[in-house]
Amino acid sequence: MIKKQHTCGGESFYGTTTVGEKGQVVIPAEARDILKITKGEKLLVFGMGDDMVVFSKLSHMEKFATHLSNKLDVIRSIIKQTERPPRRR
Fold it and tell me: Cα(32)–Cα(17) distance, rounded to whole angstroms?
């Protein structure tokens, strides 16, 4: 049974966790279920400022990077079309 998570502006709060002796944390079951985080899944760990830690699925970052890579030629073409040649004096 999934408990109701608290949401605010599209973000969700799933509860608390405690950092263990070895620096490990447990992601609450509700968050793992809803976010489809499975055993063995790789997570990226980002520091935001001096006091915030953010986890992101590696698979999502890989998908995003692949998407950008696939669109790179289109992006370059658009940029080239919008650039103006330097004006002559």
Answer: 13
Closest CA to 43 of 30, 32, 52, 29: 32
At 37-58, the pLDDT tens digits run 999 999 999 998 899 998 989 9
In whole angstroms, give the CA distance from residue 78 to residue 4.
Answer: 44
**pLDDT tens sequence across 50-85:** 999 989 899 888 888 888 888 888 888 888 888 777
Q: Is 7 helix (H, G, I), strand (E, B) or coil?
A: strand
pTM of the model: 0.61
- Given a contact cutoff of 8 angstroms between Cβ atoms, the answer to whether 15 and 29 are in contact is no
Rg of the chain, C-alpha, whole Å: 21
Strands (E), 1-89: 6-8, 11-13, 43-48, 52-57
